[in-house]
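Review session, final week

We close the course with one last complete record, chosen because it touches almost every idea we covered. It is 8064_t:CDS:1, a protein from Funneliformis caledonium with 335 residues. Go through it on your own first, then we will talk.
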Amino acid sequence: MSITPNSLRNKRKNELKEIASDLGLNTKGLRGELEDRIRIHLESSEINKHDEEENLEDVSLGKVTPRRSDRKKSRSRSRKDLKEISSHPNGDRHSSDEENQSVSSESEIKVIKRETLLEDSTRYTSNQLTFESSQQEVAVNATYRTPHTSEDSDIAEPSNTRGLPNDRIFRVNTVHDSLLQLRKNVSNAHTFCKTVICLELAVFLYCAIEWNYEVTSVSIPNFFESESNEAHIYHIRVPDIFILLEWHRFWRPLISFIFYLLLLPLGFSYIINFEPQRHVYSPLAFSVFQYIIFSVSYGNFDWTEDVRDFIHENLIYAGAGAGAIFALYESILAN
């Protein structure tokens, strides 16, 4: 037996409770509340069925695909109406004005749904047209350029005017950035001071270790001088590794060089820093203190004589002075 909103008026309260429990509604409240609750549920279900039939007709005609959002909206509104009915504290029935308002709101819902369906259909057709036109534009325009805004108007993305692939452009940009970073790391005072120290250490080791062990001799004929048939003899020598066992000839000058010309100026550069950043390695302070320490100790202490046996003093003065000038110039440019 089908239940209609008009047949609810002749039902008793117990029958209305049974109907509400079958429909999954709340069975509490007065008879009027139960009747209104069941009536609104039946009307909302009829509206949903009518909308589904209209959507199926549209789908069969090939107009618009049905959407679940409309059904969810109608269900949520019907649930809100049920909550409003159950939330009345006095349990009185709604007046005829409120019933008329609910009917008018339901009619408005139908009109809004139809309007949204029409808007969706027009939007779908317009999207298809714009998609086809955009495909034609992409086929014609092979290059691209990002739109500029007011904030980054000075920064423009280079367009692919030469027809190069994007992966090759990315590789070129990566190599360019790496070269810029390499130039930034090489052309600074820190790298210059490290290079000077490595050069002085290489000169020290080359002069301290003698190459006096002859391994073999190679004779190379002289092809350029036709008159003399004599061949040039080249002696292949290896370094004397036994000097590593001698303290006075190798280890004492090396330790003096590392301590007085490397560690001591480095410590002073951390303590007394001429730059704004304190407790940081300063190439300017390092070069200045290296120059001062060697010039003050020259002729007064024995370690300078040990170092001078393998490194000329002009090389030390030139390295320290050039490092100080380079660091000072870099700090002036930074400020």
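Two points worth writing down before the exam:
The beta strands are 213-221, 231-238.
Residues 186-209+241-334 form one domain.
Good luck, everyone.
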